[in-house]
Amino acid sequence: MVTFPDGAKVVLSNEGGRPIHRGTVAVRGPCAPSREELMGLGLTEAQARALEFVLAWFGSPFDSVASEAPSGGELRWGAWPLSGPTLISALAHWKQREPDAFDARLGRLGLEATPEQPPEPASLRLPGFRSAAPVEGRNALALLAEDARLLAALARAGRERGAQLAQLETVVTHVLRPALASCTQDATADSAFASARALALLFHSELRFGRRGVTRLVTLARERPEPPGPGERLAEDLRATGRSREASEVWRILTSPELADPA
């Protein structure tokens, strides 16, 4: 357990010899952004419903922090969760929007985040310890992942509304927009991903499988628009290749009344 000067506590676990925080702030609830705030990031109502569903069922709490598979040991933070350049972008975006809140949670520990300034990407910097040189980028994230105090501070930052919105805006900008763009290259794929349910399938594919998953789902939609739909065929492909967990997640999306079209 890490206790901060103001009395706040963050309870850490240990996996693989590294500290992690499984999180306490769910995507749905009084401590999380509303659907209206999601739409304020530029999402349509259907896109906001889809993202909320995928994060609530298959994502992580906003204040979760881990460095475990499937990210190859990279530090991961937040609801999507973010790692590497996208994690750095989210922190830099939060610092830009709410510098005082950022400094209160992370800046006071020496963490510096600089927003993207094209052609330069967002950057992250930690001071060196014991006269060592400062570390930047992924090296700074690696150091953060090994330091229980810094990791707990990052977890606590995920409880701040501004940091949560920075996470979500980073996901929308760097993850979902490219995925959505891949569906607008022809009319068949574009129309196949118009509903909240279809969008949830798309976002889930990105979350679980990355760009390859999105490409596979879009290809299924283009190949045969008639039933069975791309979601059903994706679930069958996953089941046939031994990915039963992911197949069951796809079926949850396909059958959940939460994603039904409004009456």
SSE order and pairing:
Elements: E1 2-3, E2 9-10, E3 13-15, E4 18-20, H1 35-39, H2 45-58, E5 65-66, E6 76-77, E7 82-83, H3 84-97, H4 99-105, E8 112-114, E9 123-126, E10 135-136, H5 137-146, H6 148-157, H7 161-181, H8 187-192, H9 196-209, H10 211-223, H11 230-240, H12 244-255
Antiparallel strand pairs: 1-2, 3-4, 5-6, 6-7, 8-9, 9-10
Helix pairs in contact: 2-9, 3-4, 3-7, 9-10, 9-12, 10-11, 11-12
Note down, in words, how this protein is organized:
The chain is mainly α and 263 residues long. It has two domains: 2-25 and 63-160, no CATH class; 26-60 and 182-263, no CATH class. The chain is built from twelve helices and ten strands. The protein has helices at residues 35-39, 45-58, 84-97, 99-105, 137-146, 148-157, 161-181, 187-192, 196-209, 211-223, 230-240, 244-255; strands spanning 2-3, 9-10, 13-15, 18-20, 65-66, 76-77, 82-83, 112-114, 123-126, 135-136. A three-stranded antiparallel β-sheet has the order 5-6-7. A three-stranded antiparallel β-sheet has the order 8-9-10. The protein has a two-stranded antiparallel ribbon with strand order 1-2. Helix 2 packs across helix 9 (196-209), helix 3 crosses helix 7 (161-181) and helix 11 runs antiparallel to helix 12 (244-255). The longest helix is centred in the middle third of the chain and has 21 residues, at 161-181. The protein is elongated, with a radius of gyration of 19 Å. Residues 222-241 are annotated as: Disordered.
Question: What does this entry show, briefly?
Answer:
This protein has helices at 35-39, 45-58, 84-97, 99-105, 137-146, 148-157, 161-181, 187-192, 196-209, 211-223, 230-240, 244-255, and strands at 2-3, 9-10, 13-15, 18-20, 65-66, 76-77, 82-83, 112-114, 123-126, 135-136.
